[in-house]
Amino acid sequence: MTDISAMLTQTATHTLECSRLTKHYGAQQVLRGVDLHVRSGQIVALLGPSGCGKTTTLRLIAGFEEPDRGRIAIDGRVVTDAKTAIAVEQRQIGMVFQEYALFPHLSVADNIGFGLPGNARDKAGRIGELLALVGLAGLEKRMPHELSGGQQQRVALARALAPQPRVLLLDEPFSNLDTALRAQVRSEVKAILRQAGITCVLVTHDQEEALSLADEIAVMFDGQIAQMADAQTLYHKPATRQVAAFVGEANFLPAMAHGDQAACALGTVGLHEAATGSVDLMIRPEQLQLLPEVNGVRAVVRWQEFYGHDQRIGIALESGEALTVRMDGDAHFVVGETSGVKLRSAAHAFAGATVQTT
Amino acid sequence: MSIVTRSLTTITKPVAPAITGRGIRVSWRIPLLPVLIAGLISLPILLLAAELLTPKLDLWAQLWSTVLPRMLGNTLLLMAGVGAGTLIIGTGLAWLVTMYQFPGCAFFDRALLLPLAMPAFIMGFIFMSLFDYAGPVQTAWRALFGRSAPFPDIHSGGGAIIVMTLVLYPYVYMLARSAFREQAGVTLEAARALGCGRKRAFWRIAIPMARPSLAAGAALALMEAMTDFATVRFFSFPTISEGVVRLWEGRMDRVAATELASLLMIVALALLVVERQLRGRARYHQQGGSGRRPVRAALKGQSKWGAFAVCALVLFAAFVLPIGQLVLWAVHEINGHVPGTWETVYGQYVGNSFALAGIAAVLTVGLALLLAHSARIWKSRFVHGLTRIGTMGYALPGSVIAAGVLLTIAPVDHTLHEWLGTGLLLTGSVVGLMYAYVVRFLAVAHKSVESSLDKVKPSMDEAARTLGARPWDVLRRIQAPLVANGVLAALILVFVDVMKELPATLLLRPFGLDTLGVWAYMLAAESFWQAASIPALTIVAVGLIPVILLMRTGDRA
């Protein structure tokens, strides 16, 4: 009873619902049944390697392309299904493009006001609000080519937000910025989106971007969503081995599970969730710790990469397995040295038979 | 902030009609428009080629036994001479102004493009008058060195080659300059770091790398040289182009003229193939450039003034001298003006020229827009190929196009007359002439229009759509303003080219419709140089507009 009522309220507040989207380009199938539900005000990231279908999904939502099959609804109104194809301009979506696509012949103010109804005086107030929101007040008379990359990006954002779209779509919005600027612009954009309280779908191949910006992340491989969850869940309890390897760094160790414990090359270790039989353990590098004194499992240090605040150390176990360890920058180990190794927290297990193929 | 709190009722707008049979609509459609345009352009060329397949052997035998060997030899000689001349002057000047600092180098960098404004036949008759036996140069020569002092005969291939080289070297200069600038910066520095001096770097690095650009520039210059018939006629150096016009205009023998034109077309198409292949390679070669120009080395002492003298001499001979002479003549003509002479027709000829050029520009740019737009929509190799066919007319001499256009429209005229008794509806009107202009200048318009369309990225269209703009709004608010400049440039270029065009205008103009160009040519052919200066100066003045625009935008070719 409670489950059903919870489900009902949830669907009612879904701003965007995509169900079973499929799409072919010629002989190539790019989407194999994508389901994506985004709640009102939520920021969802579509994360995946290039060619996984994330941009296609975004373009289907925007209405630039039509799916072979499937249904898309925005605020409960069907915009795409077998019988319906609402034109892009009637969908009330906003979009920020990878290359910003600012109109080069229009000033900042005219770019932002492009999608607003009414005459110049009607628009002026709203344009002013948005300039203030994105922190560009005073630049309204500039032309796009007179702006820095980060400023252009914020104009693109303001322009997309101006007509109060139901959903904001962002296509790799930070990939055109250089690395130094990216982190700063990202947190500014996040603040703006939060303040606007808008529902967002963001496409990115950069996991750091997805993890830091989004409430939930949908990881896509090969035209399907492999897992949709918040950043913590995705990192600590990935649904598949592929997700585990794509989001963060992961070691995999074969093991025999007995309930909430498993036997592996590191000895007997604890499990997050009970399992039985042959499994693969996923161990994040920071879950491992090297010990100066050797008792128990022995490991030889093979290589070392020092980053300052932390370091990555490659080790080989006696049984031959190679693992990566992430430790504080002040721990001191020498390549070639033998040391002890231990697992600091419980591991996540994948049933061996089903995941071995990947 | 209540950005998303728009009431749900606002989206109960009329729902767009359901789209049925998605995808099918596109797949079987033929790109009708580009097929039509490419067909229109290639028809005259194909009909001329068909003439070659059914040669009139007795006619060819007669031509061969009389004028053909000389014309063929002269044509080849002219091409060799102009090719070598433009390559040496164009490449040399481009190297000087990009690599060295000397007095006036920034000025010469741009000013050396000015001769582009001068049609070859105008330059031809000016040089003729200056260096002829009775001209001021030879007169002064004789006064200095005695009556029998030898002077090279100006009525020769040498004279024609010098004049055309001076007018046409900017084609090589322009492409060489941008090649040196775009690729030479980093590469030359690398070469010099490896111990290679500037002079050696020129021969070992710059020239080999710029070779495709240089050859493409020379090919463009040769295309212009081949279309000329008037200059070579002034210098008594008949080429095939001159032969076509002479047979057509002088002897009214259109059959022989057509045969000869088909031969000239073969030469022109060969040149076109070479140029297109090299252009493609030039683009590839220049992709590695960082956009940083090479640092100009400051010349010292003698070489400083040497470089200045070379640039100044070329600019003087190719622009200052002829313009000065034209102005001088014009002043004399106006001062010693006899009422009832040229001023009675001047306004009329200006009107004719401007009307023809204006209509041709609108027509050509309209077709170029359609062609470029359909290429964007279709994005197929087939349409790309059609575009290349539609834009090959720039390589064909005006006399060849005139012959081909006549072959195309004469049968239509004939049929119409039999059915409706319309007389010479097409051949007797400006239709034929307009057709020829479109064939010849569609490439010029297309290039300008296409590059401005490229500025409109697909994502801009999409961004406008997401902001609520309907397709028509996108065209009106985004595409049109962005393309406007390119369209304006295309209109100016075609307008000016039509003003300067001579052979096709002379051969296809309706009876009684004279233009500034035809008028200037006719007067010059009769040695009425002073009178010819008035229309000639008008043409040069109009021709300066695009050159000045080009000089201001820098090195955009």
Structural class of chain A: alpha+beta
What would you report as the Rg of chain B, rounded to the nearest angstrom?
A: 27 Å
Number of domains of chain B: 1
Uncertain segments of chain B are 1-28
Name the assembly state: heterodimer
If you consult CATH, what is the topology of the largest domain in chain A?
Rossmann fold
Total strands of chain A: 18
Spatial strand sequence of the major β-sheet of chain B:
1-2
* Helical residues, percent of chain A: 25-40%
Shape of chain A: elongated
Shape of chain B: globular
For the report, how would you describe the main beta sheet of chain A? 6 strands, mixed
Topology as H/E string of chain A? Answer: HEEEHEEEHHHEHEHEEHHEEEEEEEEH
Number of helices of chain A: 10
Task: Outline the structure in words.
The complex is a heterodimer of chains A (358) and B (557). Chain A starts with a helix and ends with a helix. Chain A has ten helices and 18 strands. The longest helix of chain A is centred in the middle third of the chain and has 18 residues, at 179-196. A six-stranded mixed sheet of chain A has the order 6-7-8-3-9-10, with helices on both faces. In chain A, strands 13-17-14-15-16 form a five-stranded antiparallel sheet, with no helix packed on it. Chain A has a four-stranded antiparallel sheet with strand order 2-1-4-5. The model of chain A is unreliable at 5-12 and 353-358 (pLDDT under 50). Chain A folds into two domains: 14-245, Rossmann fold (3-Layer(aba) Sandwich); 249-355, Nucleic acid-binding proteins (OB fold (Dihydrolipoamide Acetyltransferase, E2P)). In chain A, 26% of the residues lie in helices and 38% in strands. The radius of gyration of chain A is 24 Å and the shape is elongated. By secondary structure, chain A is an alpha+beta fold. By secondary structure, chain B is an all-alpha fold. Chain B has a single domain (36-552), classed as MetI-like (MetI-like fold), CATH 1.10.3720.10. Chain B has 22 helices and two strands. A two-stranded parallel sheet of chain B has the order 1-2. Chain B is globular and about 70 Å long. The chains are: A alpha+beta (358), B mainly alpha (557).
